[in-house]
Every structure is written in structure tokens, then in C-alpha cells.
Specification:
Belongs to the peptidase S41A family. By secondary structure, this protein is of the alpha+beta class. The protein contains 9 helices and 25 strands.
Length: about 450
């Protein structure tokens, strides 16, 4: 018996959930047509070998054999669909760090400005915050090496590292005449994928930015905190999934399960019928039946769409905003052995509880709300969606492209947020509004920055 390790991800960018499964060798009996197809495949492989040898011997400069092979693998996978690809060893490690949401580092969110690293904000209770690093600080040197000339990813990689190791930062701070030298000791950093605040004095607002291994626990923590702070006057919750590119399948399932008492959450269907898997909810609603509004837009993809689709089909939440991205496929990450990277291979489509595939269509909100976009941003705030990607998996019926993804930086200008507030306060009503406390949740219906 052969054991194969793979990773399942749902993301417009990247993400993973570790899955172990066992495959049994199967006896294969081939007829004449199958033998002919196999023979043709081997002829094509011989052709590849001939081309490879010709490039090695005749190219104007001596090529790197490893890079040639990696490029060939990459070309084979990217020719399948937009989400299948080859990851070299470093890319594979970076993906694992991202999906764990936990790494050795300093605890600062940073961006690049004029070739230097600018601090967006220190993360609470991390080496950076304890050392007094502040938003808008400019980092010019890392261990005496100038930041100028490095990419943002290169600088972030230098700031990350094993726990309990040291790094020296040179910082320019507005109002200080001389640069500040700070030596930090790296610690275990957890990326906060869930943030919350009290909205309008009686609503719990929860923003989920990605679905990593910390997301469900973060959701539970914030719901408990908001419930304790607001008390009996709590009207309900707003779950903001806008511009959330997705992440772990398992986290999308457990986040959905947090709001549902029963019923299917999602099904995944591969090439063969026996590969179909269905995930169902367990009893226990984290919010104790409070109304829920989910905000989505053109940047809400994959795992975000699973959550929105499950809560919409079960009429557990009202979906507000603009049509989502439309990534309805599942990728499996298949490690290729020590130091050889991994394959990201599309292996299934996923379906909402009512049996809808959102591939190249997206989740249509119950209430569409368009934002007022500044003139200078109008050409840059719409996402074209999955249907616009070359080589995307096709779907039956009309595919949809283009959806607004702009979120106003000031909450008072956020029309989708205002609509959610009004719905929870009863100022506006929707036929598909979230249930009131104590109502029964029925089954599915056929209703249509970098951190370091």
C-alpha cells in the first residue's frame, strides 16, 4: 500500500489544508485503443527528450538543466488552467508559512515606499511593538545591509527567521534628527486573519482577510469578545469577506459550520464520481441565532465564496455587496520529495449546498450595493473575475465577468456597510434577510500587505 501526502487549497492566490489519503495500486487491463494511446504518449515523451538534448547541446549559452526541467514542468501545468502550477522548493516553503499563519519574525506589517521599507503597523504583543516601533517608521538597513535595491519580498524574507535569533534595524522616524538603531529578537508571530470592532454601538463587525490555520479560532475569540462587550443589546453580526482571496478548504468549512446547526456546507466533485466529498454542519451556532450579514465583492474568492454560498443557501445570512470572483475549483498541493518543490494541481470543482457551481459565475448577493468610486480610481477598482482568465474551467450557462471591488477607506462612506447596519437595525428589509434570534435554520433551498 502506498501512502501519498497532498494539500487541498481553495484560493484565488494560494492556500492549503493538509490532507492525508491512501491509494491502492489497481490492476489495469488495456484494450487495443488504450495500448495505442499509451504508445503515442511515449512517442511524445521521446520528442520531449529530443528537444531537451538539442537545447542542452546547441543553445548559444550553456543552460541550467534544472531550470530547463522546471520550466518544462511549469509550462505543462500552466497550460491546464490558471490555477495549476509548479512551485519550486522556496515557493513551496513560502506557501506553507502563509497558510499556517504562524512564523518566526518581528511582528510588523510593512510596505515598500520610494525603495525603502515603511512600517504600516506593528502587531500587538510582538518584538516590534515591545521595542516601540511605530507606524510610518522607515527601515533603511537590516543587519547593516541597505534595504535600497531589495524587493519587498526579499526584505520580508530577511526579517523573518528562526525564533530567538537577532536582527538589527536602522530606522528613520519623523521628528527624530538621527536614525534609530534597534536590535530585535525574533519570536513566534501569528498573522491575524480575523479583526473585529463594535459597529453602531450594538453590532459586531468581523473582518476576515484570509482563511489560514488561525481563522476559525480567531472568529470564535472575536465573537465571544463582541458578545461580552455589547451584551443584551447586540443586534447581530456583520462578516466582511470583501477582497478576501480565500485559503484553506478546512477553514472555510469550519467557519461556515460556526453559523449553521445542520445541513450540507459544500461538496467537491472530481473527475470520477467516487471522488465526490460532502461536508456537513454540526449542531451549535456560535452566534446563538443572531442575524448575520455577509459582505462580498469582486475580490471575494474561493474559500470566501464557500462561506457566502453556504450561508446564503441555508438562508442563514443576507449577502450584501457585489458579485464575487467566481473561483469554483479546488487545487491539491502534491509534494515532489525533499527539495523538489510541489505541484499545485486542479483536482475538483466545488458546489454550494443547493448544488450550484459558482465557477466563472460567482455568488450573486441578495442585495447589490455599488460604492461611489473616486474618478481617478474608476478604471482600477473592478476585478474581471475568473471568467476572464485564459484557460479557466468552463461552466454551463452564462459566465459572468467584471465586478466592483472598491472599499472606501473611511467607514462612513462605505455604502455596503451602511446597508448592513440598516438591515440589522430594521431600517431596511430584505425578503432574504437573515433570521431573527430563535428562528429555525432549515436546510438548503434552491434560491437563486506583507507581514514579518
Amino acid at each position: 500500500m502506498m501512502r501519498k501526502t497532498s494539500v487541498i487549497l481553495l484560493s484565488a492566490a494560494t492556500g492549503a489544508a493538509l490532507t492525508l489519503f491512501v491509494t491502492q495500486p489497481r490492476a489495469v487491463f488495456m484494450g487495443s485503443s488504450a495500448r495505442a494511446a499509451t504508445a503515442d504518449t511515449y512517442r511524445q515523451l521521446n520528442l520531449f527528450g529530443d528537444v531537451f538534448e538539442r537545447v542542452r547541446s546547441d543553445y548559444v549559452e550553456k543552460p541550467d538543466d534544472t531550470k530547463l526541467i522546471e520550466s518544462a514542468i511549469s509550462g505543462m501545468l500552466t497550460g491546464l488552467d490558471p490555477h495549476s502550477s509548479y512551485m519550486d522548493a522556496k515557493s513551496f516553503r513560502d506557501m506553507q508559512v502563509q497558510t499556517r499563519g504562524e512564523f518566526g519574525g518581528l511582528g510588523i506589517e510593512v510596505t515598500m515606499e520610494d525603495g525603502l521599507i515603511k512600517v504600516v503597523s506593528p502587531i500587538d504583543d510582538t518584538p516590534a511593538s515591545r521595542a516601540g516601533i511605530m507606524a510610518n517608521d522607515i527601515i533603511t538597513n537590516l543587519d547593516e545591509e541597505a534595504v535600497q535595491g531589495l524587493t519587498l519580498n526579499q526584505a520580508v524574507e530577511k526579517m523573518r527567521g528562526p525564533v530567538n535569533t537577532k536582527i538589527k534595524l536602522k530606522i528613520i522616524r519623523k521628528g527624530q534628527d538621527n536614525p534609530i538603531d534597534v536590535t530585535l529578537v525574533r519570536d513566534n508571530i501569528r498573522v491575524r486573519s480575523v479583526r473585529a470592532r463594535i459597529e453602531a454601538d450594538d453590532i459586531g463587525y468581523i473582518r476576515i482577510t484570509t482563511f489560514n490555520e488561525q481563522t476559525t479560532e480567531g472568529l470564535k475569540r472575536e465573537v465571544a469578545s463582541l458578545s461580552n462587550q455589547i451584551g443584551d443589546k447586540l443586534k447581530g453580526y456583520i462578516i466582511d469577506l470583501r477582497n478576501n482571496p480565500g485559503g484553506l478548504l478546512e477553514e472555510a468549512v469550519t467557519v461556515s459550520d460556526s453559523f449553521l446547526e445542520k445541513g450540507e456546507i459544500v461538496s467537491t466533485r472530481g473527475r470520477n464520481a467516487e471522488e465526490t466529498q460532502r461536508r456537513t454542519a454540526h449542531a451549535g451556532d456560535l452566534t446563538k441565532g443572531k442575524p448575520v450579514i455577509v459582505l462580498v465583492n469582486g475580490g471575494s474568492a474561493s474559500a470566501s465564496e464557500i462561506v457566502a454560498g453556504a450561508l446564503q443557501d441555508h438562508k442563514r445570512a443576507t449577502i450584501v455587496g457585489t458579485r464575487s470572483f467566481g473561483k469554483g475549483s479546488v487545487q491539491t498541493i502534491i509534494p515532489l520529495g525533499s527539495g523538489n518543490g510541489a505541484l499545485r494541481l486542479t483536482t475538483a470543482r466545488y458546489y454550494t449546498p443547493s448544488g450550484k457551481s459558482i465557477q466563472a459565475k460567482g455568488i450573486v448577493p441578495d442585495i447589490e450595493v455599488l460604492q461611489d468610486v473616486p474618478d481617478e480610481l474608476k478604471s482600477r477598482t473592478d476585478t474581471k473575475g475568473e471568467a476572464s482568465l485564459r484557460g479557466h474551467l468552463k461552466n454551463d450557462g452564462d459566465e459572468k465577468t467584471g465586478s466592483q471591488s472598491y472599499i472606501p477607506p473611511d467607514a462612513k462612506d462605505d455604502k455596503a456597510l451602511k446597508m448592513a447596519d440598516d438591515l440589522l437595525h430594521g431600517i431596511k428589509n430584505s425578503a432574504s434577510a437573515a433570521p431573527t434570534p430563535g428562528s429555525d435554520n432549515k436546510g438548503a433551498t434552491d434560491k437563486p500587505k506583507a507581514a514579518n
